[in-house]
Amino acid sequence: MWEKRYKWNTILIILLVTLLLIGVEYLLLLRSNETLAKKSAGLFMDHIERHLDHASQTEADILSNLKEEYCFRAKAVSYVLDDNPESRENSEELQKVARLMGVDEIHIVDATGTIISGTNPKYYGYNFDSGEQISYFKPMLTDKSLVLCQDMVPNTVEGHTMMYAATWNFDETYIVQVGIEPVRLLDYMRSNDISAVINNLPTYEGTCILVADAEDLEILATTDKLMHEKTLEELGIGPNRYRADKGEMFQTTLGKTPYYCLVERYGSYVILIGQKYSQVNTNLEISLLILGIYLVIAVLIIYHIIRRMFYIQENAMMDAMTGVYNRRRYESVLTEYNLIKPMEDNLVYVQMDLNGLKCVNDNIGHDAGDALILGASECMERVWGSHGELYRTGGDEFVAIVVMTKEELSHAMDELTLLTKEWKSPVFDLNLCIACGYARHDENPSATIYELAKMADQKMYEDKKEFYRMRKSCKEYVDR
User: Fold this and answer.
1) How far apart are CA 268 and CA 440, in angstroms?
2) What is the 3-state secondary structure (H, E, C) of 36-60?
3) Model pTM greater than 0.70?
4) Is 74:176 a contact under the CB 8 Å cutoff?
5) Domain boundaries, the chain
6) For residue 149, which of 71, 202, 77 has the smallest C-alpha distance?
């Protein structure tokens, strides 16, 4: 019954919900990726602005800002590793990231302060208690908001003069520590040429950094050679796209390629950070595919659970012997009609009882009596099943609550009589006879369902009394 009434509606609803969830997830992923792109662009923007701001400062000022530079590199590495988690456990991949980010060493430190991965396997196993140099970062274990950079000191393992910076990753599940030889970085930082600054910035695939003159909008430096000898206006970036304060992320096309762009005016420069749309959303299809797989699995599980629930519910309402509804279901329906549901005009309450069952049980046996009950339920189901519901309310007592016209009811009563006369048990030599009484709602419009039940019960007992008046003994019934 569940199959017929609920199966396809349930499947359709679940499929619609699944498609809706995939659509919502798609929009959320786009929004999330754009937010991450803006954060990444903001980091680059801040970094470039610091470069431009510090380019004319003295060497002492540059040295004082080395720590900020190294912390930025640690953050940049953490973003790259968050975007590429498979690289975190592969020293060769980490070496590539280190080269890409312009650092000499990368160490991945777990929440206990132990180095678990990095560009150099010989450092694995060292922790923040292994020496004076590395213990500098121990406060990060209790305060995850810290981003620390160390002065130039000999490192713990080999005594090389290095500077280390460390930061927690975005999810605060591990610490990223980078090591840099300060001499090489000092040489790099002393360069005041804007082109050298931009070309040597640590970027990743799909990122374009561009600096133009704020007056004539001529491009002074860019990480994308295809954009040399052009102006911002030729790229479609007009004055409405940047202001003196913080810019907003927007989508545009640079060189026929869609980009997320962040543009800001900083002093005498206009700075553009572009990230390819395809690169920012590189895993969008995979994420949606994984979500789709999970949702399909969830749909199948939910479908099975719902189906099982209805199966259990229906079986709790079924009579185990005859397969028709039991007394629990009967009482539930009567309560519903009495308190909630109005009775249909053509509602008929039919009370039925087997004649001679006790005689059969006493003279032939209870197996024969059970066969008689099963035969009666089969005949009743054939007559009443398509018009309503049939209930076994006691041992040989049955009730049908159906919706039928008077003509249909008359035909049904004749059919029930005919079926009982024609019924034969395959095992026992039995005769089947059913006492029956009914009450119609349209003939008793003011009566409650319980009053109809009482009327039908009285008529049924009159029919049963007449039956026993005609048959004086059990043997006469059995041999009829």
Assistant:
1) 95
2) HHHHHHHHHHHHHHHHHHHCCCCHH
3) no
4) yes
5) 57-280, 321-478
6) 71
- Which pLDDT tens digit goes with each residue over 329-368? 999 999 999 898 899 999 999 999 999 888 888 888 889 8
CATH superfamily of 321-478: Reverse transcriptase/Diguanylate cyclase domain (3.30.70.270)
| CB neighbour class for 370 (10 Å; exposed up to 12, middle 13-18, buried from 19) | middle
| Domain 57-280: CATH class, spelled out | alpha beta
- From 11, 81, 41, 21, select the one nearest 295 (Cα to Cα): 21
Encoded tokens for 34: 């754009």
User: pLDDT-based confidence at 456, cuts 50/70/90?
Assistant: very high
DSSP 8-state secondary structure symbol assigned to residue 225: G
Pair type for strands 347-354 and 434-440? antiparallel
Encoded tokens for 396: 């040989």
Beta strand residue intervals within 160-214, DSSP E: 161-168, 175-180, 207-213
Whether the Cβ atoms of residue 213 and residue 268 lie closer than 8 Å to each other: yes
Instruction: For residue 319, name the pLDDT band (cuts at 50, 70, 90).
Output: confident
CA distance 250 to 277: 11
**Cα–Cα distance for residue pair 416/351, rounded to 1 Å:** 13
- In which band, very low, low, confident or very high, does the pLDDT at 244 lie, cut at 50, 70 and 90? very low
